[in-house]
Amino acid sequence: MAFLSGLSAFPITPSDRDGRVDTAALKRLVARLCTAGVDSIGLLGSTGTYMYLSREERRRALDATIEEANGSIPVVVGVGAMRTDEAVRLAQDAKAAGAAAGLLAAVSYAPLTQDEVFEHFSTVTRDSGLPIVIYDNPGTTHFRFTAYLVERLAQVPGMVAIKNPTEKSEEIAGHLAQQRATTPNGFSIGYSGDWNAAEAMICGADTWYSVLAGILPDVCLRIVRAAQSGNVEEARRLDAGLAPIWEIFKQFSSLRTVYTMADLLGVCRAEPPRPILPLPPSAKEKVAHGLTLLEQDLA
Question: Is residue 130 a contact partner of residue 95, using CB atoms and an 8 Å limit?
């Protein structure tokens, strides 16, 4: 699964108040990613608000993305659901539409045990036939994958990668080394958490699963390519230039911020699904200022 390396860009999924996906706006977002040359597109992740969309709308979003990408860039699509049977059907939809892999989180209402998550992931992978990326996202699921659970899941045929969270940059190297030692050769290990992802790539992670790259792919690609080529100084310099954006992400959430960015950049006008509210005017001014600083730094 060589495509699970480099930069995986996660766009928003523009939709109306009734949850109907604006496929024209989504295609514009995807076209930006194709033009930039990202390594994969992460459709219907948390930034893509997959849990707020019906099965029908997820399929419409996936079909539009596959059509726009036209085979040039692999698409990894969120297939998470509360019920195992529903997640299986979503993964089957993704495979039928031409997705390269599914991104599966341990979403739930009742807290899940490690064994329950193992059975859930194993069943979805087996019954769908779609390669699956483990999505460890405790910030939204409130479930944490233990090292042992990741080791068990990595042995399941069709489980091809993991998308890890990042919390402390100084802990990434040790965490990465531990996962490398307990997962098979070829199992792709990647990280999200944009403000720590440059360090993850410098440490040797396979993939940066990026929110910012879903709207500003070029600068993120420059960081990834610098890290991949061993140019640590350049990767860190570019990452430092994004510090104002990272602070805005932390203050207002990356999800709300990228919706505002899409509007400010003239790519599309959309609001996050309710009950999530758009940023207030004062916050939008901070985002606009952050984009101005970034433009000046890159210039």
Answer: yes
135, 191, 209, 259: the active-site residue? 135
Domains and CATH numbers, the chain: 6-231 (3.20.20.70)
pTM above 0.90, yes or no: yes
CA distance 137 to 223: 23
Q: What is the pLDDT of residue 2?
A: 53
**Of 27, 50, 95, 163, which is the active-site residue?**
163
Query: Are 4 and 207 within 8 A, CB to CB?
Result: yes
Residue range 84-96: average pLDDT?
Answer: 98
Q: Does residue 163 have an active-site annotation?
A: yes
Q: Is 104 helix (H, G, I), strand (E, B) or coil?
A: strand
3-state secondary structure of 88: helix
Rounded to the nearest 10 degrees, how much is the dihedral formed by the CA atoms of 130, 135, 140, 143?
110
Q: Is 135 a catalytic residue?
A: yes
The average pLDDT across 1-23 equals 91
Amino acid at 13: T
Contacts of 59 (CB under 8 A, 6+ apart): 93, 97
* Helix 232-241 vs helix 194-202: crossing angle, to nearest 10: 180
